[in-house]
Design a protein that fits this description.
6-stranded antiparallel β-sheet; globular; Jelly Rolls; about 270 residues
Length: about 270
């Protein structure tokens, strides 16, 4: 299952555009854009927005999700898949966690916020699964299902794109109303033992899968992982990643027709230690 998604972020150009629009709106009320009060107001808005971005970047931790609720997440559904996986918060042996259940289904939950992978390159989480898929096969489209995976999706950056890529992405935006992601890393619980450090997704070479766990040996056990997103991206794609990314959780079984349940205790995204 390839994961089409566009991620939009607040940048300096958007801040400047906001101020510009504010000036135009105020001017429409009969005030000059050079009016002292208008200039002061615009400058205050600019400073407040810039300060907000600076404060976010200055934090040591971008995300410390303990799954007490799903307020920070939103569902994502695939257009041609009617059966959706289910996501809920529950308590498992005294631990509040995310429950992800799939039964011949596919859908995901997306974190509503985006982050800078250079400011927050470390991703850590704790998960377990009830089973893996007998027909799961990472090399085939009809086996591209996993009881759980974490997607890190990188936003398309038009300023760094080649002319040919710009044309391709603009056409996609024209037809679908949004840009597809530039690329993604999939941290997966692989169904079978894997020796390769990463695996191209059978749907797209721009979605690379990293099997942090593989096979049945650890089914039913809590496992903790910590990865460096930037380092993994460089190892997989042999280039630096785009700066802005988002994260999603998915449990899918639409290709194999099987069922599984996964639990995630926490997800953290933070600066290097």
């Amino acid at each position: 299952m390839n994961f089409p998604l566009v991620m939009m972020t607040i940048t300096n150009s958007i801040i400047l555009l906001f101020v510009k629009e504010l000036l135009i709106a105020v001017a429409g009320k009969g005030l000059s854009v050079m009016d002292g009060n208008v200039v002061k107001l615009s400058f205050m808005v600019f400073v407040l927005l810039c300060t907000g971005v600076a404060e976010i970047q200055a934090e040591e931790v971008f995300l410390d999700e303990q799954f007490v609720s799903l307020q920070r997440w939103e569902p994502f559904y695939f257009p041609k898949i009617e059966n959706h996986s289910s996501y809920s918060v529950l308590t498992l042996n005294g631990v509040s966690c995310l429950s992800a259940t799939s039964s011949n289904s596919a859908s995901a939950i997306l974190l509503k916020e985006r982050f800078n992978v250079y400011a927050f390159p470390t991703l850590a989480w704790r998960w377990q699964v009830t089973n893996v898929y007998e027909k799961g096969d990472s090399s085939r489209k009809d086996g591209d299902d996993y009881p759980v995976r974490l997607y890190v999706m990188f936003e398309y950056d038009s300023e760094k794109a080649s002319f040919g890529k710009k044309i391709k992405y603009e056409l996609a935006n024209l037809f679908y109303g949004k840009y597809p992601p530039h690329s993604s890393l999939n941290y997966i619980w692989a169904n079978n033992k894997q020796s390769a450090p990463f695996i191209p997704n059978p749907y797209s070479s721009l979605a690379m899968m990293i099997p942090v766990v593989s096979g049945k040996d650890d089914v039913g056990e809590w496992l903790e992982h910590k990865v460096d997103i930037v380092r993994d991206y460089r190892a997989v794609f042999d280039e630096d990643p785009p700066a802005i990314a988002s994260i999603a959780v998915m449990s899918d079984s639409d290709n194999t027709g099987e069922s599984a349940r996964a639990y995630i205790d926490y997800i953290r995204i933070y600066k290097e230690e």
